[in-house]
């Protein structure tokens, strides 16, 4: 069996272009070394040498190939534990034997870029999948659907591509020697790193360095098409400032087919990694990008810049024009004014007890010859009634979404926790059977919500899942409305205009 797996893995490398004709014997020998084997059968080697890479059927079998190799490694005592954590570390080491050095990857990227930026990113995205850095077979398990709302079609995902951690691996990670290398998951030091139980292996990971200061990679979890991360090569905290807007436009000019944006730089309204300066982008158009300008406005001194309030549940000022310097200048003015802005009538406070609350989530893109920048106003104030944030999903929505609203959610894509897959299945069965949700330890959190839905719908076995998915979309819409500092009401728009006039 292991002979067959070795053959299939080398054939996979050939079929995907990760290795070339001249690399076959070398790659076989490196796999033998890793598996502590002295030889491969002549017939198996012949099968490898005669394979020309044309047969693509082997590409879809990577998951089972790696699984068989991990099984063998465990049986032979090479793999310490037969759990997800240990298997992920080992199969990444296996894949690293098919992955070229960073210098060659970077060279090929720029050769393609000279032809066409789209060709370069397409190839690097495929490469990141072929190397199993992006695990296609896990991404395919994610649940995804579209939810129509008054603000447009929102994207809903239940993320299942992050593996559940094994209890033994968690315990072992706690006992392992603590290290600060790499400092975080975004540091350039991750490239080629073997990983450990509390830090993923990255031997199959390649970063394309823009220059000495910034790196570019794809997200291993791909929440949307070509989900990329652009990050500072230094481990420095995130900060929204004038230079941020300039960097966003620098990226869009280099890759005009991509959008790029930044999480806010304050807790609650920021992303999951505030300790490392980074942006996220990709080849995708979110619902927010499609949303129209609801009210056009003019900023004094910037009459040449088109501006307006976007029809969106969060508070978005969209500015656009052909001159990025003018957009950067106006964005910086809006940011500075917002940082220090207080409007007690609208419950907006720039700071309380010395803690700053106001910041911006910016998103840049190019449309034809025009550049566009969306500035989403954020505020992270908390109260006794809303200890997790006034402009954060309120408690009645936590049964669906409790986590921070970062850049991706702001734009209209819900990244919902994996627990919801099982809970959705359980709810479908319970609703159809008439079971008491309040008697179920897992599902009781949804009981009030389901009671409301029963007043709106007549549930059947055929329609229950579609209704719940539709209503989860409505919950996410409310999540975004809660996160908006100015509500989409007459009073909210009046308050929004007070700030715009002050700018």
What would you note in describing this structure?
The chain has 503 residues and is of the alpha+beta class. The chain is built from 17 helices and 15 strands. Strand 3 and strand 4 (214-218) form a beta hairpin. The mean pLDDT is 95.
Return residue spans where pLDDT drops below 50 for at least 5 consecutive residues. none
- What is the radius of gyration? 25 Å
Strand order of the largest sheet: 3-4-5-7-6-13-14-10-9-8
**Number of alpha- plus pi-helical segments:** 17
Describe the main β-sheet briefly.
10 strands, antiparallel
Topology:
Elements: H1 2-16, H2 24-34, H3 42-50, H4 62-75, H5 84-96, H6 102-115, H7 117-130, H8 136-139, E1 143-149, E2 152-158, H9 167-175, E3 208-209, E4 214-218, E5 228-232, H10 242-254, E6 259-261, E7 278-282, H11 287-290, E8 293-297, E9 306-310, E10 316-321, H12 324-339, E11 351-352, E12 355-356, E13 358-367, E14 370-379, H13 407-410, E15 413-416, H14 419-433, H15 447-456, H16 464-483, H17 490-502
Parallel strand pairs: 2-15
Antiparallel strand pairs: 1-2, 3-4, 4-5, 5-7, 6-7, 6-13, 8-9, 9-10, 10-14, 11-12, 13-14
